[in-house]
Specification:
It is built from 6 helices and 14 strands. It is of the alpha+beta class. The chain starts with a helix and ends with a strand.
Amino acid sequence: MADTLTEYAKLAGDEVSKGIIEEIITQDALMTRLKFKSFTGNAYIYNRELTLPGGSTTHAVGDNWQTIKPTFNKKTASLVTVGGQSGIDMYIEETRSNLQDPQSILMKGLAKDLTREFARLVIKGEPEVNALEFEGLDSLLRSETRMMAMDDGAIDGPGTAETELTLPRFDAAIDQVDDGRTKPDILLMNSTMRRKLTALARAAGSGLILNNIESFGHKVSTYDGIPIIINNFITDAEQYNDSSTWPSSTATTIFALKLGEENQGYTILHHGPVLQPRVRDLGIPRDEEIHEFRMLVYVQAILYSTKQVIALGGIDSTA
């Protein structure tokens, strides 16, 4: 939000233009689907199952039985801070408030900016590159070895070459979620891949029908009954930071996810009972006539079970 008299003069014009027309589109279909978990503190510790107890096998009469204890992998997730800061020129705040409330306008702008950055980090957060970011889906699934390569079907990363999406490989990836026993909560992709699926559905003899359902007041396409959620923070030029084989990529990724602690899936952690931005009134700096505000949240992302998610990477977005 620019602190200039000219910008705020636009908001204090005539009665016909009262209100703000939101030109920056921030609605994100994924945000309404995410699952959150609150806790108190700055780090969350959880145990992931590593080996099962028992060592069950067949036994003869009189066998010696061996006691085997279960083992766990202790995981720790520390909260990070996501936020922004801006201010209002005091001249504007005190003389241009006849029609619009400059402070309210600023708060809406900060909230919108914070929401967009949070939505970006859900996909692109890369703490291996920037330690201040939380784990995005792309980073987390690669670090947990849960990305299937489109080129050879191996679950070892994005592969070595961009390869056209095929329905058999797509189905094979989906079957990796919960070992194929239940379906993912969502399929997450960008609009390029949604158009590709539509094209595959139209192909003669495909047998694929993308039905629509109502979700949060909007029509959402489904694949085998699984909602398709569009998110264009997933690019058509993925670089896959852990791979040196993608210097100028045209690749993209599709995610199949279970969400929330109850599903042992991808979950957003936050401090406090609700995910509500903290607003700090920083007052007026000694050397400036600006009323400053800061808005922030404390968040992190975790994956309870690796079996509840899969990514299909290295899909050629131009094929």
